[in-house]
Amino acid sequence: MITYKDWFIFLVLVSCWLPSQLWGFSFALDKRSIQIGEVTILTLVLPNTNRPDKPLVIDDLLDRHPQLKVLERNMNQTDTATTITFEITAYEARDFRIPPIQVKWGADTFSTEALDLSVTTSRAPEDTEIRPDFGKLRPPFPWRKAYLTLIACLGAVLAIWLVRWSLLRIPWRKVTQLIEWKPKLPNFETDRMWLRKEIAKFRRELKAGNTHPELVDRILYTFKIFLQRQTQTTVPALTRMEIEHEIPEKQLKAKTRTLLAQIDDFKYHTVVKKDAPKLAEELLARIESDYL
Fold first, then answer.
1. Which residues contact 106 (CB under 8 A, 6 or more apart)?
2. Residues 6+ apart with CB under 8 A from 221
3. Cβ(81)–Cβ(103) under 8 Å?
4. Does 271 score more than 50 pLDDT?
5. What was the pLDDT predicted at 118?
6. Directed axis angle between helix 276-291 and helix 191-207, to 10°?
7. What is the DSSP letter of 120?
8. Does residue 139 lie in a domain region?
9. DSSP assignment of 222-273, as one string?
10. What is the CATH number of the domain that holds 17?
11. 10 Å Cβ neighbour count for 181?
12. Is the domain of 174 the same as that of 79?
């Protein structure tokens, strides 16, 4: 005996079956639970109405999914229907939701529902073997990274060579001469201070017993340097006669001229009875009295 409950179930089944038969669109997922790396196929069936254009598949949500991978897409058209298939897999053990896929064909728009997919694994976390004779899985060689590293190394070597070549080509001696800077400190030492310091050195030598005739020549040369600093003339290169002619009487006093003549007699005439230490002492005393 057919009850109202049976009629109700029959009407529900018919309501679910009629739209797919009337509209002609259906979709199905062959496996709702897969192992890691296993493939499940999502199939979309559209009625073939002999339209000249092809259906536009909008699967951006599925394509941009971070964990789900679409391995292959296929489209097959027959006289009665158009079938679109997606081979989907995942490499992480967890539950996923396959996002909806839309198909636009002319004025009609079809869409699937979000489908649940469970990805499981029967392997232990440390199990990395495909089969015993294959051994452990090895990651693929990073050719792109190796290529970029090689290019970077070659670029660095070329840059170092260019820097070295440019450094060798630059005349560094001229550059350092151009940029060399030596600070000039002000000289607070006057000509008289300098002469007094030199005379003190000669007196220390005389006190230490240095009585060689060359000491007179050194004192005379120092005196000529002092005259050069005073008169801005090349006194050390002049003879006694040239000194008397070049330097005015105000700067070269008469007693000093007489002393220079005695030094010449000491250097070039053996008839002079005066010895070197005595002449050096007299020369130093004359210089101090006339110029200090």
1. 51, 53
2. 236
3. no
4. no
5. 92
6. 160
7. E
8. no
9. HHHHHHHHHH-S-GGGS-HHHHHHHS-TTTS-HHHHHHHHHHHHHHH-TT--
10. 2.60.40.10
11. 6
12. no
Q: HEC profile for 69-102?
A: EEEEEEEEECCCEEEEEEEEEECCCCEEEECCCE
For residue 118, which phi and psi values (nearest 5 degrees)? -105, 125
Give the SS3 label for residue 46. Answer: strand
Give residue 86's pLDDT band: very low, low, confident or very high (50, 70, 90).
very high
Alpha carbon distances (Å) from 264 to 72, 269, 289: 118, 8, 21
Residues 233 and 246: beta-carbon distance below 8 Å: yes
**174 with 112, same domain?**
no
pLDDT digits (tens, 9 = 90+) for 143-167: 888 889 999 999 999 999 888 887 7
Domain end, chosen from 120, 136, 154, is at 120
Inside any domain, residue 12: yes
Mean pLDDT within 11-33: 64
* pLDDT higher than 90, residue 214: no
Count of the separate structural domains present in the chain: 3
84 belongs to a structural domain: yes
Tell me if 126 is assigned to some domain. no
Domain residue limits at 102: 4-120
Whether 176 and 196 map to the same domain: the answer is no
Asked if residues 211 and 277 have their Cβ atoms less than 8 Å apart, the reply is yes
The sign of the torsion formed by the CA atoms of 146, 151, 156, 161 equals positive
- Tell me the per-residue pLDDT of 38-77, one tens digit each, with 9 for 90 and over: 899 999 998 876 667 788 899 888 888 888 989 899 988 8
Query: Which residues, in sequence order, are CB contacts of 261 under 8 Å at separation 6+?
Result: 240
Among 12-16, 110-114, 217-221, 258-262, name the one with the lowest average pLDDT.
12-16
Q: Note whether 76 and 45 are within 8 A (CB).
A: no
Q: Are residues 95 and 203 in the same domain?
A: no
Alpha-carbon gap, residue 253 to 35, rounded angstroms: 121
Q: Are 77 and 48 in contact (CB under 8 A)?
A: yes
